[in-house]
Amino acid sequence: MRPVSGASAAGKRYRCPGCDQEIPSGLPHLVTWPEFGGIEDRRHWHKACWNARDRRTTRVQRSRNAPRY
Q1: What pLDDT is recorded for position 59?
Q2: What is the pLDDT of residues 1-41, one digit of tens each?
Q3: What are phi and psi of 14, to 5 degrees?
Q4: Distances from the Cα of 16 to the Cαs of 24, 29, 55, in angstroms?
Q5: How far is CA 25 from CA 14, 18, 54, in A?
Q6: Predicted structure pTM score
Q7: Could you tell me where the beta strands, DSSP code E, fall in 1-69?
Q8: In the 8-state DSSP scheme, what is residue 51?
Q9: Taking CA 33 as the corner, what is the angle to CA 32 and CA 39, rounded to the nearest 5 degrees?
Q10: Which one, 5, 15, 21, 58, has least CB within 10 Å?
């Protein structure tokens, strides 16, 4: 796990796997990856979503109009 500051996150958007919401450019967040994973296994999380990952269900609830990525 590695924290990313807002200045380092400028220019690119990511989708949080915890809440399935977009992480806008410039927002501080966390980058995680498995111990034996490659660069394609990295995931970008909101800090609150990462902290709550053990309390979430396995199925993410999306709103009706939410895009699926």
Answers
A1: 63
A2: 777 876 666 678 889 998 889 998 888 899 998 888 888 88
A3: -130, 165
A4: 10, 9, 16
A5: 8, 18, 26
A6: 0.69
A7: 2-4, 14-15, 22-23, 29-32, 43-45
A8: H
A9: 115
A10: 58
